[in-house]
Design a protein that fits this description.
The protein is about 85% helix and about 0% strand. It is mainly alpha-helical.
């Protein structure tokens, strides 16, 4: 009967640290991407509101 193979605890700790670091990096990247998307959406919305307001003012100024 063979004896069970136990992984090296130091190697296992390093693998866990690497996995956690990768998860944190992915989370930070997703958060930054969402921030950029919100900023882009806010900019497009503001541009659209300014355009609509200008059209409204132009309509009021015409006879």
């Amino acid at each position: 009967m063979s004896t069970p193979v136990h992984p090296n605890p130091a190697a296992l700790d390093a693998e866990i640290r690497d996995r956690i670091a990768a998860n944190v990096a992915a989370s930070v990247a997703r958060r930054e991407q969402r921030r950029q998307q919100r900023a882009q959406l806010a900019q497009r919305r503001a541009t659209g509101l300014r355009r609509r307001h200008a059209q409204k003012i132009n309509r009021k100024g015409q006879p």
